[in-house]
Amino acid sequence: MPTPSRRSQQIPFSPIRAMFRLADEMERAGNGPVIRLHVGDPDFAPPDAVLEATSRAMREGKTHYPPSVGIQELRAALAEKVKRRNGLAAAVEQLVVAPGSTEALLAVMEIALHPGDEILLPEIYWPNYVQQTLIASAKPVFYPLGAGYQPEPGGARSAVTPKTRAILINSPSNPTGAVIPEATLRALYALARERDLWVISDEAYEDIVFDAAHVSPGSFERDLPESERRVFSLYTFSKSYAMTGFRLGYIAAPTLLASTLLRKIQEPLVGSTAMPIQWGGLEALRDDAPIARMRDAYRRRRDLAMSLLKPAGLVDYTPEGAFYILADVASTGMTADEFAVRLLRECRVAVAPASGFALAPEFAPDGLPVGAMTPGGAPEYPTHPKARTRVRIAFCVSDEELREGLTRLVGLAERLRTGRSAGTTVG
Amino acid sequence: MPTPSRRSQQIPFSPIRAMFRLADEMERAGNGPVIRLHVGDPDFAPPDAVLEATSRAMREGKTHYPPSVGIQELRAALAEKVKRRNGLAAAVEQLVVAPGSTEALLAVMEIALHPGDEILLPEIYWPNYVQQTLIASAKPVFYPLGAGYQPEPGGARSAVTPKTRAILINSPSNPTGAVIPEATLRALYALARERDLWVISDEAYEDIVFDAAHVSPGSFERDLPESERRVFSLYTFSKSYAMTGFRLGYIAAPTLLASTLLRKIQEPLVGSTAMPIQWGGLEALRDDAPIARMRDAYRRRRDLAMSLLKPAGLVDYTPEGAFYILADVASTGMTADEFAVRLLRECRVAVAPASGFALAPEFAPDGLPVGAMTPGGAPEYPTHPKARTRVRIAFCVSDEELREGLTRLVGLAERLRTGRSAGTTVG
């Protein structure tokens, strides 16, 4: 076999794979189900009307190639949605449909970043960001998060170099659930404007915000002329409508030229987005009620999680959005990876160690990551220390399962702490 | 707006866009429909059972994230299919599902090519190949096609440099319809083996072969140990089952390591392939009868096209597969682009000038294409001279429309020739 490209060797794996495999193995070995708090896939069903519209589109012969940027009907409805809900000023031509916001993010990075360029990412982040940065042959540089995992604009400013071309903002955040306040978003946007950076705003969880209104950074430039705009706003149907398996997302591009480049790059990236799925998405936009119902459920589960984890000393912040919380198991004396494996083995509860959300590849002077592929298919990268004792818990199971899973987690943490304070060896 | 990456500026557009726009404009202006021979999108419907299976999957709750490489049931069925129909020896783990073979091709290129590497492409080719090569920051180098647009292995050998990492083979070919004989495929494979190149075999039209059996280059290495395999075989549901709008394709990887890298790279490229669509694809594999029916129709149309174009001196070969023919309008004294515009304006028939299937970007010493973006969003690249007077005709309309469209085309060509031999100015 010829040697695979260095780039393809050096991309890390998504971190929750290992937990998936372990959880599956345990279930196959018997002794009942595992409580799956490691997966961010809503336990709800998509609205019935969406399924019907998708089926109807197929029956009506909507089975041929759509335009690479999406069908006009959906783009028009999305332009209306981003105006009404996000406060953006985007013409229909600036809306680009994608088979999921994952692909949308990659398309945007290919437009923003040239090989050797740098992008600012939060230091605890959704792992796709670094994978995609490496596909674009660019370099991730991390900006610091303070209390409650809030970005520190001063730290972001210090991370800018002459090679920086973009800053990624993710609010609400996966994996922390942090919702960034408007003042911080404005400070990050001002930095981007001052240093002429693209802003890539991943708003996948825009509809799951509990205690405040979601703010879209693109709204800050709605009154600026096109020539001064810089925000790519990215959205998805996955979380708002429990449509993860449909693979449907979209981009509001800052300018017509940016959307022309997106149209061009969608052709070789994916061709287009499945035609019947687009008609299903159009139907989803007609009714906001399912969004509110699911948001209420996630808020209830967030409150439930806080009521169990906070008294146990396992969290030091309140997530205000998304459906995640990062718990800190430092008091057990274990790393998150050790704790997660023990929790799975002893208590049949799966969580995601945050180490995988904080890989920090080191780079050689040639601009490529340092690190050779292991037999598993990727290098072992260092992890940001802040993530070392954190685990991500997702609220994508029933309230009962969440309560049971977290009760077991708290119980294990307490046993480990007690054993530790009694001088027993742990691990 | 910040400056878009040089890479994103330099990717060319897909060439049939301009004809789409012109044809749409003409229809909007009135005077009846345009006969659309420029689009390679089957005019058939997908099998009913596929639509039903897709709808059923949604109703049964198959609406959540699938694995990035596809659902196990579909991968198992595909492993069986590539064994039976393509003569490959691929374990289930080597089959990777993709949202279309477009994305599959890009994923494979990212694994085969590192920035600065070279890939051998046929000199008349499906335009995505060059777009994708530029996304991978690699360099396309073209191998010559001889009579009947058949690859010349000697010419391919001469094009290999120390930077060459892969050769792309496309049989049956888009845009020529050429089916490469086994002896030529073996010669290209032997070259790849000798120079340790990856082979990327795009077999999108595998089921549309009229006069011979389809041969998969991957079958040449079925008895070799994994360490010596090198062929990525790429397939799609789009053409075989008229499922273009479903966006469903797949890869048979040469080795387990290659499929591990594909699994890793699918995560940041697209996440996964829409879940209900995968169940529809599984259903499609249960019945080969629709394939044979559509193949018969394409053969009939190919024969019809030959019966009109050959006596008119507009073709010098017989396409043996796919649903395309390249006609040569040199005798009219016009370039293909001029002829296509005149045919559309005067006769309301749209064809695709082959110039867009033969763009040959020139490269600077830094490995990047020469050429600045025009206001349209891409550079103007030179075209291979062989394509200058060719137009691609697709057989994706009814027999009646095809006959009418080609009769008009032949009529225009004859008028132009007559005018020319009579000394009249043309153009």
Structural overview:
2 copies of one chain form a homodimer. Chain A has 427 residues and is an alpha/beta fold. The first copy, chain A, has 2 domains: 6-44 and 289-421, Alpha-Beta Complex (Aspartate Aminotransferase, domain 1), CATH 3.90.1150.10; 48-284, Type I PLP-dependent aspartate aminotransferase-like (Major domain) (Aspartate Aminotransferase, domain 2), CATH 3.40.640. Helix content of chain A is 39%, strand content 12%. Chain A has helices spanning 6-10, 17-28, 48-59, 72-84, 101-112, 128-135, 153-159, 182-194, 237-240, 256-270, 275-284, 289-309, 336-347, 399-421, and strands spanning 35-36, 95-98, 118-122, 139-143, 164-170, 198-202, 231-236, 249-252, 324-328, 349-350, 352-353, 390-394. In chain A, the strands form 3 sheets. A 7-stranded mixed beta sheet of chain A has the order 2-8-7-6-5-3-4, with helices on both faces. A 3-stranded antiparallel beta sheet of chain A has the order 9-12-11, covered by helices on one side. The first copy, chain A, has a two-stranded parallel sheet with strand order 1-10. In chain A, helix 6 links the parallel strand 3 and strand 4. In chain A, helix 12 (289-309) runs parallel beside helix 14 (399-421). The radius of gyration of chain A is 22 Å and the shape is globular. Chain A starts with 5 loop residues before the first helix and ends in a 6-residue tail after the last helix. The mean pLDDT of chain A is 95. Chains A and B meet through helix 1, helix 3, helix 5, helix 6 and helix 10 of A and helix 1, helix 3, helix 5, helix 6 and helix 10 of B.
